[in-house]
Write a structure and sequence with these properties.
The complex is a heterotrimer of chains A (120), B (85) and C (234). Chain A is mainly α and 120 residues long. Chain A is 68% helix and 0% strand. Classes of the chains: A mainly alpha (120), B mainly alpha (85), C mainly alpha (234).
Chain lengths: 120, 85, 234
């Protein structure tokens, strides 16, 4: 078992646990928590895809001379993507929470089975 | 990859998945929120081991810091209201 | 019950796909073309030590501009959704129990240091791990600490929105300067590259990342404030 497989398996497991929680809980807050778990899992898988065994972080300091960077660093692109994704993830979570508060103010409950207007 | 690093990674992964299980299954919502914060913290340890310090900092500051408090603000407001009823 | 069975079946199918992906995965041994371009060209082109920063601020600068716009929209929508409940000062309920002396003194001592750490993190974004987004989150956590100590404290929304919009405008203005004096929109090379590894180096990258840090910090703070300040309609 290597570090990459471990991190990837952890990420996939987090996605599954998060989706299970989102589908099985009735409380809206708990559903949002489950979504953030799945979100973290996706980030973990993406970063693990960029990792290469035996290489180091993409920062050119004393340990990584500029002319050898190509052979010493890991892929920086997934890291930049995940950094963006984490920040946007907080924005999405805040938006979901704001809507949850509005729903609570209008109906005085957070139980998702009580919201039946769009049910058929 | 040294054995020690791998051991740390295994520990972090186990703590992360345990936290996720608690966050989904726990009866009490505050415990679930705290467990979700733990999941983010352990994920940021894994990011450091995966040589992604930038991502680890972001996850630690945003995922386990600000998100947890956003949830607690909302939870506090909901609790207040429910006590009144 | 059927719902739960369906859920488990769906997740089991997903798990099979994931296991397939995982068992066939082998990490690359060489950087792919894009990554190796970034690895070779970041230092001579931009003079930034942190390649991730180089990608976020310059190579994919437009993407980052879009990202801070999305964040701004989110903060605006959160405020808009919650605005109906915002109570006036006089209509608020009884004051909550005041925080202890230790907590108040501690937060007064810590908040400026947290702010300083946040500023350090985003000013040094091109040299060390960190940058505008992390620094902005740390700045917002200083606001959060003050808010937790005294929930009744009022922050100036006007100041926060001024900081936010000024940083955004300057960000776009620097992008336009890059269009005029260097290769294209958000090109950071219109300022001298300086000494590789020094604080004032890498063209306009530290400047742009500091502005992003201010903007992100203001946006996160305003989200936290609007979620904590609103009161329910009575």
């Amino acid at each position: 078992m290597s570090l990459v497989t471990l991190a990837m398996a952890g990420g996939f497991a987090l996605i599954l646990i998060g989706l299970y929680g989102a589908l099985n809980n009735r409380n809206i807050l708990r559903i949002i928590i489950a979504f953030t778990l799945a979100n973290t899992g996706v980030h973990l898988v993406l970063v693990a895809v960029g990792y290469m065994p035996g290489r180091t972080a993409p920062i050119l300091d004393a340990a990584v001379p500029v002319d050898q960077a190509n052979a010493l660093i890991i892929d920086p692109v997934p890291q930049a993507l995940v950094l963006t994704a984490i920040v946007i993830g907080l924005g999405v979570t805040a938006l979901m929470l704001a809507y949850a508060l509005r729903l609570f103010a209008s109906r005085h409950t957070l139980d998702i089975s009580k919201f039946t207007e769009l049910k058929w | 990859m040294s054995t020690l690093t791998l051991l740390m990674a295994v520990l972090a992964a186990v703590a992360m998945l345990g936290g996720a299980a608690v966050a989904v299954a726990s009866k009490s919502t505050p415990v679930a929120i705290l467990a979700a914060g733990l999941v983010s913290l352990m994920a940021s340890v894994l990011f450091v081991l995966l040589a992604a310090p930038d991502v680890a900092m972001t996850e630690a500051a945003i995922g386990s810091g600000l998100t947890t408090f956003l949830f607690f603000f909302v939870l506090g407001r909901v609790k207040e209201e429910q006590d009144d009823d | 019950m059927t719902n739960r069975l369906l859920t488990v079946a769906f997740l089991a199918g997903l798990a099979v796909i994931f296991i397939q992906l995982l068992s066939g995965y082998a990490p690359d041994t060489d950087l792919n073309l894009t990554a190796s371009y970034y690895a070779n060209q970041t230092a001579p082109d931009l003079g930034a030590q942190n390649i991730v920063t180089g990608i976020i601020v310059t190579y994919r600068g437009l993407d980052t501009l879009g990202e801070v716009t999305v964040l701004f929209l989110t903060a605006a929508i959160v405020a808009l959704v919650l605005v109906h409940g915002r109570a006036l000062e006089a209509e608020r309920g009884p004051k909550p129990f005041p925080a202890g002396e230790l907590l108040q003194t501690g937060s007064r001592l810590l908040a400026p240091m947290i702010l300083l750490l946040g500023i350090y993190v985003f000013v040094n974004g091109h040299l060390t791990p960190g940058g505008g987004f992390q620094g902005g989150a740390i700045v917002a956590s200083a606001v959060l600490l003050l808010l937790l100590t005294d929930p009744m404290r009022r922050f100036s929304h006007r100041l926060i929105s001024r900081i936010e919009s000024t940083a955004g405008l300057l960000f776009v203005a620097i992008g336009l300067l890059g269009l005029l004096f260097a290769g294209g929109f958000l090109d950071a090379r219109f300022l001298p590259q300086g000494w590789f590894g020094a604080l004032f180096s890498a063209g306009a990258i530290p400047l742009i990342y500091s502005l992003i840090g201010l903007k992100v910090g203001a946006e996160f703070s305003s989200m936290l404030l609007s979620l904590s300040e609103t009161e329910d309609e009575k």
